Amino acid sequence: MTQKGFVAVSIVLILISVTIAIASTITYLAIGEAQSGLSLFKGEDNLTLVEGCLEDVMLKIRSDSAFNGTTVARPEGTCSITYTSGGPVNWDITAASVTTAFQRKIQVQFTRNPTGIVLTNWKEI
Could you say which residues of the chain have pLDDT below 50? Predict the structure, then answer.
């Protein structure tokens, strides 16, 4: 009788151990997937911020060929602007978010003429 009881208790303990192992593995996988999704979401938000900053800078340059601001503040955050070529006709600017987490950076090349702006290159770097 005691041997049957030992086998039954052993089977129950093994089943509980396997169940706990499977549950903890599934939990860790779910947490990893959630973190990946959040990182992707925040990265896309940051990309939207940087694109908006570049559009603001291009609008300011269209109005004023002498514009040389190095930061753009938006409700979503702040961007830093660097100039490789700063006009008055040919422009090569790079915008990056000030925050270090999920940082995105975009480089834009364009020409400014009397009728507006002609975009030649827009790429994420």
Answer: none
